[in-house]
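Page 42, continued from yesterday. The earlier attempt failed because a stray header line got pasted into the input along with the sequence. Redoing it now with the clean sequence only.
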Amino acid sequence: MTYAYDIIIKPIISEQSMNQLADRKYTFQVKKSANKVQIKQAIEEIFGVKVESVNTLNMMGKMKRMGRNEGRRPAWKKAIVKLTPDSKTIEFFDGMA
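This time it went through. Structure tokens are written below.
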């Protein structure tokens, strides 16, 4: 059994994600094995909001090099969560915009 706090790893704070706040879209890094239904349930449980839709993206890790050695950062999963119009906002992001 996975808990809601195991699925949602951290919020993504970037210029692009801040621009989406006006459309009631919030961006999170989520567990790689989580599906859209689990992400929706976790967001609703943690923040007490109503989720309209969830879009997920698998992000490939960037290539990095140190000297002549090359390696790849780990791959991760991103979820963009859209809230319903009658739902309250997520307070964590209110101070950011």
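Notes: The chain has a mean pLDDT of 92.
Reminder to self: strip header lines before submitting.
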